[in-house]
Amino acid sequence: MIKLLCTLQILAGNVCERVTARLGGERGASTVEWVIITGFLIVVAAVVGRAVIRLVTDASSNLQIPRPT
After folding, report:
1. What stretches pass through the bilayer (predicted)?
2. Structure confidence by residue, pLDDT tens digits, 6-42
3. So where are the chain's domains?
């Protein structure tokens, strides 16, 4: 799980670097660019959240609770 989070963080960093490189001489990003970047990060967060929920659900469904005798 940590490996997945690290990979996603590296990918997000690469995206930020590419956006910065494409802007070139501009000092700041425009509102539209920030909206696009924010939208992308929201999608990434949703995917990671869904993966975590799936992992927890799968792990919890395999738990066996002992019955009192």
Report:
1. 34-53
2. 888 888 888 888 877 777 655 666 788 888 989 999 9
3. 2-61
Backbone angles phi, psi at 15, to 5 degrees: -65, -45
With beta carbons less than 8 A apart as the criterion, state whether 40 and 48 touch: no
- pLDDT, residue 42, reads 93
Neighbouring CB atoms inside 10 A of 43's CB total 10
Angle at 33 between CA 6 and CA 42, to 5 degrees: 40
Q: Is the pTM of this model over 0.70?
A: no
CB-based contacts of 5, cutoff 8 Å, min separation 6:
48
Average pLDDT over residues 44-49: 93
